[in-house]
Amino acid sequence: MRAAVYKGKQKLVVEDLPVPEPGPGEILVKVSHSAICGTDVHAFLYDIAPPGAVMGHEFSGTVAAVGPGVTMWKEGDRVIGGGGTPPPGSEAPLRRQEQYNYRLEGFSDTRKRGYAEFTLLNDWAPLAIPDNVSDLKAALTEPCSVAVRAVRLSNMKLGDVVTVLGAGPIGLLTMQAARAAGARKIIVSEPSATRRDTALQLGADAVVDPSCEDVISSIVNLTEGDGPHVVFECAAAPSTLDAALNMVRKKGSVMLVALAWESVPMLPVDWAGKEIQLNTTFGAEPYDWRVALDLISNGKVDLEPMLLDTDFLTLDGIQGAFEALIKPSTQVQMVVRF
Ligand SMILES: [Zn+2]
Known about the structure:
Blueprint: E1 2-6, E2 12-16, E3 26-35, H1 38-45, E4 58-66, E5 78-83, H2 93-96, E6 118-122, E7 126-128, H3 135-138, H4 141-152, E8 161-165, H5 169-180, E9 185-189, H6 193-201, E10 206-208, H7 215-221, E11 230-233, H8 240-247, E12 253-256, E13 277-280, H9 286-297, E14 312-313, H10 318-325, E15 335-337
Parallel strand pairs: 8-9, 8-11, 9-10, 11-12, 12-13, 14-15
Antiparallel strand pairs: 1-2, 3-4, 3-6, 3-15, 4-5, 5-7
Helix pairs in contact: 4-5, 4-9, 7-8
The chain binds zinc ion.
The site of zinc ion has 6 residues, from helix 4.
């Protein structure tokens, strides 16, 4: 099978590897679509993915074979590569450790995952794809589950005025999850014109361009001078967390969704007097995945405008795609199609 193997030093090489055999309790999935996630781009940019790893955790496909003892799945079942409930002891480290530092934890995962024609999963790991959801859209359940968790942990209430900073895939999904949860008005800040247009198509009430306007005063003005109740920071630009804390209204909440891998400047005296809350969210739990799949299936999250034709690639284009994504990008979502 063909797989994009990480070689270290920002190099992905497509190689021929043997198709893995599912062991007891495992299933073999033939990958259909694999979306490129910002987490993988960070692993590439900062060269922290271990050499030999095949990244890719946002994928969909079809069960091609089942290992001994597997009764939950049969050949031909359509699945996404996550969302199942792990048995006790198999939870991700973040869910079982009292202390968790994503950067210092290290990246030891050398599994062959979604940037390959086939991948192995534990039988408990995937979720079934509903009949009315295509494989392509199902591949985006993972980023959608991240948006669902961000909204669920944000203290956002029915009728709140919301701002989303950054209209990459996570920002566009967070915006839609906030609308589904009852946001009254949604303002999106994004420097790329393409992404601002996508935000408007997906129902943003207003967009602002932080590259040519003062984002804090523009957004405060759009909220009758009060500031948003909740700000979702989905950009991780040097200034966005401080801007979020500066624009949110008194007693409001900021939800940090994007991960900045470098220090970001903050001046707490500017905003501490508003007695605001700063919350964080990280990844998603199985329940968030199920909510995400419901929202995609019932159309409350619309993936169509995020999936522009130009953003599809084959495995051979993956090195070029990653090189493009480590620079400021205008692509909304890139997907490897097998
Ligand atoms: Zn992801």
